[in-house]
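Methods, example record. To illustrate the input and output format used throughout this study, we show the complete record for Photolyase/cryptochrome alpha/beta domain-containing protein. The sequence lines were provided to the predictor; the line carrying structure tokens was produced by it.
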Amino acid sequence: MRVSPNRWRFLQQALEDLDKSFRAIGTRLYVLHGKPEEIFPELLKEWNVKLLTFESDIEPYACKRDSSVMSIAKKFGVKVLQSVSHTLYNPEIIIKKNLGKAPLTYQKFTTVVDSIGLPPKPVDAPNALPKEAQPEDLAAAKYNVPTLAEFGLDVKSLHPTKFPGGETEGLARLAEKLSDKAWVCKFEKPNTSPNSLEPSTTVLSPYLKFGCVSARLFYYKVKDVISKAPHSKPPTSLIGQLFWREFYYTVASVTPNFHKMEGNPVCCQVPWDSNSEHLDAWAFGRTGYPFIDAIMRQLRQEGWIHHLARHAVACFLTRGDLWISWEEGQGVFEELLLDADWALNAGNWMWLSASAFFHQFFRVYSPVAFGKKTDKFGDYIKKYVPELGKYPSEYIYEPWNAPKSLQERAGCVIGVDYPKRIVIHENVYKNNIQRMSLAYKNNKQNTETTNSNPAGSSKSKTGKGGSTKRKPEAEVAASGIKKFLKKN
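The corresponding predicted structure is encoded as:
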């Protein structure tokens, strides 16, 4: 399992907080150990279960697991109630409303959602349970929340908790952020800072991912704030951010191999390189580009980085500089992010690598200039790449340009105390643009050949209600490439 110590800790804290909340109303959380298909037959019989309820999930592993548990419940005559509550809307309803296909653009998605209407409102938590519903074994230790040691974690290796897990913390964070009504109304994601020393966004994504904060509660709380004043609109507003989450969940729910390139009907097939040294340098913040390295080190230490910071490092790994598959980056994020989410992680990596959804691959993030826009003195770099802490601001983003004498005085010689650049951005990114252009043309030709010869082809299918049509990426991008290269 790709789960970092930070995310294990967040989960463990979330479970402890949930157990505390349950005990306050006369019940408790029961944590069971083992595989569901092995535990449930014994559990249903021992506890004389009549009704089993759970939240639906679109992830392939979860679908397989839930199907197995439902089969077991049926054998024991247990009624099963499966609810859609992790998202604002039921993905199946959105797809049905879109004539059986997943909407493959955000604009199309929001049009469909608008036709459905407002999502269901959240339900208040109970304040108490009737005595007859209270369990008798509240003190049974075998059902306690596991400790970090039981998860096999070395607590000493963990950095201090920056974002504690649990509903209590999540709701407090939600209330704090929404208390600044002017900030909520003016919020636009592109105008927030990827490299501020403290987060410039809500950092509610881990709490949404783990169900500590209800997406519907978040939605209606924001709705209440913005209803009283002029406000920003989707896709950049806070409501817009929730809709991005819904968009990826919807597409992922009916797209086979959504987390892979091969066999994924919405993904451009790109001949990425394989370079384990470059991948490790990127993953551990040793690329020689301080802005990129600071982001990856923050991710490894804290488990969270700003959305635009994710853009920068994802572009750098894939089409921008290293030409390494987005699947590799997806794996690193899957391990390290507190908010690692199967659908969002895959969807965003396809977007940033220009493999799906976004096709202007010639727009490349500079690993130098992008960070300077919001942190010209490099305070963020000095925090997460402390070996460069004594570098003056004019060299903090490009330490390789600093005179050797200055490097020595700063106590950080490039190539000795901090790595040299693993690639020269100015040399590689234009070549990568041409490689991406060729991949788009080849994909277009392959798609046209497949569509013109259906009898001799095996068309990709997206499953129930899926779409096999691919956007003409080559045509979308071609008009912009020449203009971009002329300017650069």
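Annotations derived from this record:
The radius of gyration is 25 Å.
The CA atoms of residues 78 and 228 lie 47 Å apart.
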